[in-house]
Amino acid sequence: MHQPTTKNRALLILLAAVTLAFGAILLPLHGAIFWGLVLAILFAPLHRRLLARLPRRPTLAALLTLGACLLIVILPMLAVATSVVQEAGGVYQRVRSGQVNFGDYAQQIWSAMPAWMLRILESLHLGTLGELQTKLASFGAQATQFLANQAVSAGSNTLEFIVNFGVMLYLLFFLLRDGPQLAARIRNAIPLDEAHKRELSAKFITVIRATVKGNVAVAATQGALGGLIFWILNIEGPVLWGVIMAFLSLLPAVGASLIWGPVALYFLATGSTWQGITLVLYGIGVIGVVDNVLRPVLVGKDTKMPDYVVLISTLGGMALFGLTGFVIGPVIAALFIATWDLYSPPARIG
């Protein structure tokens, strides 16, 4: 019995070593691989319908599904990204040229402040207009420096983006065409009961679909609504601010208000009362309702996770993995709950 046990241990050590090595090789492309997998899961139902109509042409069905993914998801996102880059460049140039002056904004807000608010500012050591202008000028300099660094970074990472984009599309095609066979091999290799594997696999797919569709739907809706009201109120760069609100909406409850809230306060402080009141009512009654209504329905309902678990796992995932973490965090949380449910004994009542 000793010799087979030794061979099994050696095989497990070799398996762990080559798996870690292969993971290290794939690590630089983890974003492309992850989003290729996510898009394959999201578009799998469409691919199955096409494959039912083209049973003897799986490659064509995969190509048609890939084309649908390009038209529905990828090309619109690239178009929005192009508009954002153009508007961000315009804002950056106006800040550099002095057309956008934070000191002027401070002067307008300062003159509209009541006495009690000025006393609060004094307690915060912002008691003079000069001090406030200095701090805002410093903030403006830091913001422009950040924009400049991001522009340089974006230019230097163009080749990396093209490579990752190509890898994602290439991998997506093969995951669509050969995904069921690959998934079956992975399931067969996992040393768990078949029922457990089916349950964990179903939970994994359900959480990815619910999280991506739910968060993306909420983000796109809030960003579009925010950009629309900014355009109506003639606020410069509505597409840029709409996209920023969409990204911030990944933070449940408070996300988009971090943009429209200060703008509304600026309107109210500078005498643009109807614009400020309109933006406040619209932000609370329209943008806020989208987050409070759609997110629990689209994310929490399908994942069967409490809202606070969705919130904590989303924030923690984004802190660890960046933007991709808004999917990875809830997936890990759902698998954690599902795994413990498999092995926890049923509760006894009475």
What this model shows, in words?
- The chain is mostly helical.
- The chain folds into two domains: 27-189, no CATH class; 194-344.
- 85% of the residues lie in helices and 0% in strands.
- It has helices at 2-26, 30-42, 44-53, 58-97, 102-112, 115-123, 129-156, 158-189, 194-232, 238-248, 257-269, 273-303, 307-321, 325-343.
- The longest helix is centred in the N-terminal third of the chain and has 40 residues, at 58-97.
- The two termini are 49 Å apart.
- Alpha carbon gap, first and last residue: 49 Å
Assign the structural class, choosing from mainly alpha, mainly beta, alpha/beta, alpha+beta, or little secondary structure: mainly alpha
Order of secondary-structure elements: HHHHHHHHHHHHHH
The poorly predicted ranges are none
**Percent helix range:** over 70%
Q: Estimate the strand proportion.
A: under 5%
Q: Please give the number of β-strands.
A: 0
Mean of residue pLDDT? 76
Describe the largest sheet.
Answer: none
Tally of helical segments: 14
What spatial form do the alpha-carbon principal axes imply?
elongated
Count of folded domains: 2
**Rg for CA atoms:** 26 Å
What layout of secondary structure does this protein have?
Blueprint: H1 2-26, H2 30-42, H3 44-53, H4 58-97, H5 102-112, H6 115-123, H7 129-156, H8 158-189, H9 194-232, H10 238-248, H11 257-269, H12 273-303, H13 307-321, H14 325-343
Helix pairs in contact: 2-8, 3-4, 4-7, 4-8, 5-7, 9-10, 9-12, 9-14, 10-11, 11-12, 13-14
